[in-house]
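Methods: holo model generation. Sequences were used as deposited, without trimming of termini or removal of tags, and paired with ligand SMILES retrieved from the corresponding compound records. Each pair was processed once, and we did not select among multiple samples. The sequence and zinc ion SMILES for this entry were:
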Amino acid sequence: MAHWTRRQVLAQMGLAAAAVHTLDPHEICCTMAAHAQTADKDLFELKKVGDGVYAAIAAPRFKTNCNAAVILTDDGVIVVDSHSKPSASRALYAQIQEISKKPVIKLVNTHFHWDHWQGNESYAATNPKLEIIASQNTKDNLTKADSGVGGVPFIEKQIAALPAEIDQLKADVQKESDPAKKKNLESNLQQAESFLQELKSMKPALPTRTVSTTVTLKEHGREIQLHVLGRAHTNGDLFIYLPKEKVVASGDALIDWMPFMNDGYPEDWINTLTALEKLDFTSIVPGHGDVRPKSHLAFFRGYFVDLIAAVKKASTGGATLAEMQTKVGDELASKYEAGMSKYPVGRYRDRVGQNVEMIYKKVVQKA
Ligand SMILES: [Zn+2]
Ligand SMILES: [Zn+2]
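and the model returned the structure below.
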């Protein structure tokens, strides 16, 4: 019973699958399998990183949720990033309500990627006066046709791609004989199906305020700086800095797993991290992974420096891309594999080949 698909649950409820997207997914949730609700409750772990400042660390899910930063002020709550779907931001909001009954007054999007902003609408629904803040470039990326893996047009791409993923998962479930693996695949299938449903009913909430240079928000009881430091993970990365609490929320420009470079600027990324390092902070709330000390910045930046050097060298030596991917991956493993492979996703071997390709295209070939 815990492993019913969404369709089966709906059939049990006497609802035609075709009628589903007219329902608020929230209304369906309460009749779903019990484990789905438990999972929602356990979606985030709130970790205190300063007085009234929390990191909401996302549990691994089939469709990744980013971490959030939660900042309490005398007037209300400020949240950084909103995950991949409204049900995730609603789950976090319920947790926030346990530490503060004040409304969420500001939401900051660190960048335009799908897993950082697709939950915006749930905060907008709780407060019609919600201010959504992002860099000007991020706001532009959210509505442009081909910005990369995020934005309003990307919602359609996800809707188009998911049925094939769901079919594949169904086939995998049928084939799998190991009970633990089967259970995991069934959970993924259930997550994929509800994700598709959420995408179909999404009402994208876009930034209402943009910044192009560094801005200080004087919130009651709190100073919050929004830093535009240059291109890195995207052309619009925003860093949220609390000078008194010495905390930085870095989005995906600085994370605790392997970087995703497809929409990024690898050489600029190094300089942007160096600019970030000049700020006086002790804790990083990264876009993914766990809370890290400031020293993590040097490790993460070192990967870019070493990767660029290794790809340039291999390319000068006449290696093909495929050869480079293997050679460079092996070369840098002793220094980076352990530190970049702490979670079930975003591990060193999953991404180093893709990273090598990006460096080759964006740095070597471009030069
Ligand atoms: Zn992300
Ligand atoms: Zn990202």
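The radius of gyration is 21 Å.
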